[in-house]
Design goal:
- The chain is mainly alpha-helical and 174 residues long.
- It has a domain of 101 residues: Probable gtpase engc, domain 3 (Ribonucleotide Reductase Protein R1, domain 1, Orthogonal Bundle).
- The protein is built from 6 helices and 2 strands; from the N terminus they run H-H-E-E-H-H-H-H.
- The protein has a two-stranded antiparallel sheet.
- Helix 3 packs across helix 4.
- The longest helix is centred in the last third of the chain and has 49 residues.
- The structure holds zinc ion.
- Zinc ion binds next to helix 5.
- Zinc ion (ZN) binds next to helix 5.
Length: 174
Amino acid sequence: MISMQSPSRSSVSRAWPRPWVIAAWLMALILLAGGWVAVRAGDDKGRHTTVTRELIPIDGGGVLIDTPGLRGIGLHDADDGIGQVYADIEALAAQCRFDDCEHHSEPGCAVQEAIANGTVDAGRLGRYEKMLRESRWAAARGNAREERRQRETWKAITRQQRGAYRFRENNGLR
Ligand SMILES: [Zn+2]
């Protein structure tokens, strides 16, 4: 019977929505989960006041840093937070012979020395450097955006001033 088959076909298409609907649902879920994580990481005030920092391993190799020095998810000028997590490397770096030591092949590098004698893992130095690079890139991008905003503000002010001068000139007020 046709009248029985056609509603069942439409119910099948209702049970399996189009791919973009599934994609939208996934995005919403990811956003919700991200918001939850951000709230969890940000509300440590009063919840566990004695904890200074925490490293939470994430499946797939990453770690989530929960520290008062980091106020959000993402690396926005997070040098302070990175310095807290990699305090051992930063302490060693302070002992390097050169202030601008890049801890690769410079003579008197305390970090390379620690890697050579097994105190510090070479992979750990790599992760530290990668995080610093990303943090500085994010900070530079943030600065560029702020500079652009300020330039626009000054342009608008200058434009307004010129308009005011012109008005006074045109009306014989100067
Ligand atoms: Zn060094």
